[in-house]
Amino acid sequence: MDIEKIVSELKIHMQKWQKEAEEFIQRTPPNQLYAAIGVVIFTIFLFLIVRLFKRKSRNTIVLTGLSGSGKTFLFYQLRDGTPHLGTVTSMEPNEGTFILHSEKAKAGKTKPVHIVDVPGHSRLQSKLDEFLPQAAGIAFVVDALEFLPNCRAASEYLYDLLTRASVVKNKTPVLLLCNKVDKPSAHSKDFIRKQLEKEIDKLRASRTAISAADVSNEHTLGVPGEAFKFSQCHNKVIVGESSGLKGEIAELEEFIRENVKP
Fold first, then answer.
1. 139 close to 63: Cβ distance less than 8 angstroms
2. What pTM, to 2 d.p., does this model score?
3. Rg of the chain in Å (alpha carbons)
4. 142 pairs with which residues across the strands?
5. CB count in 10 Å sphere of residue 175
6. Helix, strand, coil proportions of the chain in percent (round to 5)?
C-alpha cells in the first residue's frame, strides 16, 4: 500500500509539473522561448565537445609486461637516452612527464608525454587499474630472449589486460613490444605473436565463466568458433621490436607519437 501511495503522489506531482510547464510555454513570448531552447542545446553541445576533447587529450603511455622484460630500461631510454638506471627490477611504478629524449632538440615544439612503467611482479600488477583509464596507449613488453619459458604467464597477463573494462571501453591501442631482439637467440616478433595467439586461444576456452569477484574481466576475446587472432580484439593491437639496452626504440617512440600527438 505504501508503494501504491507513493506512485499515486508521484503521478499527481508530475501532472502538476506538466501543467505548470505548459502554462509557462504559453506565457513566454516565442522569441524568448526559442532563445532558451537554443541556450539548452548549445550547453549540451559544449558539454559533449569538452568530454570528447578530454577523451582525446590523454597523454599517458603505460609500459607493462612480466618482470624482467626490460620495461625500466625502456623507460630511461625514453627519458634520458640511456639505460643507466634500468638495471634493477622495479617494485614501484616509475612515472614521469617529459619530452622524449630523441625530441629534446625540438623543445617547445613537441608535447611532453606521461610515461608510467608498471612493475611486472604478479602482486603489483593491480596497480595497472590506477593508470589504464587515462592511457592513450599501452606497450606490453615481452622478453624475446626468454620468451618460451614465460609464454604462458605472459599470455595470461595479456589476456587479463585485453579484457579489462577500461581498455575495451576506451579502445586503448596496444603495442606488443618484443624486447631484447638484439640478442642472437632472441625469438622473432612473428613467432612471439603466433605463440601468444595460440595460448590466448586456449585461455579463452577455459575462461567461459567470469568470477563474481573478478570485476576487471568483463569482456571476452575473439570470434566464437574461430582461432583467436589479435586482429579480432576490440582495440588495435600491433607488434613491434626493441632493444632497451642498445637504445633501439624507434617503434616504441613511433607508437607513442601516434597516440600522443606532438
1. yes
2. 0.74
3. 25
4. 178
5. 25
6. 50, 15, 35
Return the residue matching grid coordinates 612471439: 192
- Taking alpha carbons only, the member of 112, 250, 109, 260 closest to residue 172 is 260
Burial class of residue 188 in the structure, from the number of CB atoms within 10 Å of its CB (0-12 exposed, 13-18 middle, 19+ buried): middle
User: Do the strands 113-117 and 94-98 form a parallel or antiparallel pair, or are they unpaired?
Assistant: antiparallel
Identify the residue whose cell numbers are 620495461.
Answer: 71
Of 98-102, 190-194, 231-235, the range with the highest mean pLDDT is: 190-194
pLDDT for position 211: 45
Instruction: Report the pLDDT value the prediction gives residue 231, as an integer from 0 to 100.
Output: 94
Segment 85-103 shows an average pLDDT of 77
Distance CA 247, CA 103 (A): 14
Residue type, 175: L
Is pLDDT above 50 for 55?
Answer: no
Maximum Cα interatomic distance, the chain, rounded to a whole number of Å: 83
Task: Give the amino acid at 169.
Answer: K
Q: 197-204: long-range contacts (C-beta < 8 A, 24 or more apart)? A: 197/227, 197/228, 197/229, 197/230, 199/151, 199/152, 199/155, 200/155, 200/158, 200/159, 200/162, 200/228, 201/227, 201/228, 203/155, 203/156, 203/159, 204/159, 204/228
Q: Give yes or no for a contact between 114 and 96, defined as CB atoms under 8 angstroms apart.
A: yes
Residue-level pLDDT at 227: 92
